[in-house]
Design brief:
binds heme C, mainly alpha
C-alpha cells in the first residue's frame, strides 16, 4: 500500500517532465531563447517581458537525474565548480528579475552582459566535454 502510494506520486511527478522531454540541451535552448527575449525587450523597452524572461532563466528546470549522474561521473570533484557556474547565472538572472522594472537601462544592460559572460564562462570550460559525454543520452 505504502509503496503503491509512493509509486503513484512518482508517476504524477515525473509525467509532466517526460512530456516536455527535459534534457540539458533543451534547457540550454530555453536559456538562449530567454536571453534573446531579454535583449529584444531592451530594444523595444518592454520591461515586463524582460522580467518574465529573466524569471524563466532563474527558474530553469533541473538537469534530469540520469544526465546529472553522467555529468558527475565525468567531472568528479569538478562538479562543484560546474554547479557554481550555474549558481552565478541563477543569482544574476534573479537580480535582473527583481530589478527589471526599477533599474536604469545602462544598469540592466550591464547585468545582461554579466549573464552572457556567465553562460560563456561555463561553456568555455565544460560545454564540449559534457556534450560528448551526453551525446546519445
Ligand atoms: C553550468 C554550465 C553552463 C552554464 C552556466 C550555461 N551553459 Fe549552456 N551549455 C552547457 C553545456 C554542458 C552544454 C552542452 C549540452 C549538450 O550538448 O548536451 C551547453 C549548451 C548550450 C547551447 C547549445 C545547445 C545546442 O543546441 O547544442 C546553448 C545555446 C546554450 N548552452 C546557451 C546557454 C545560455 C544562454 C546560458 C546562460 C543563460 C548558458 N547556456 C549557461 C553548460 C552551461
Amino acid at each position: 500500500m505504502g509503496r503503491t502510494v509512493v509509486f503513484l506520486v512518482l508517476v504524477a511527478f515525473l509525467a509532466p517532465l517526460n512530456a516536455a522531454e527535459v534534457n540539458l540541451k533543451n534547457i540550454m535552448r530555453e536559456l538562449e531563447t530567454n536571453l534573446l527575449i531579454i535583449i529584444e525587450s531592451l530594444l523595444v523597452d518592454d520591461r515586463e517581458q524582460l522580467v518574465l524572461a529573466a524569471k524563466e532563466i532563474a527558474q530553469h528546470p533541473p538537469i534530469p537525474v540520469s544526465q546529472r549522474m553522467l555529468i558527475a561521473e565525468e567531472l568528479g570533484d569538478e562538479m562543484a565548480q560546474f554547479a557554481q557556474f550555474d549558481q552565478v547565472v541563477h543569482s544574476l538572472s534573479l537580480e535582473l528579475e527583481e530589478r527589471g522594472l526599477l533599474n536604469s537601462e545602462p544598469e540592466l544592460i550591464r547585468r545582461v552582459q554579466e549573464i552572457l559572460s556567465a553562460c560563456v564562462s561555463c561553456h568555455s570550460v565544460y560545454k564540449s566535454r559534457i556534450a560528448s559525454v551526453l551525446a546519445g543520452h
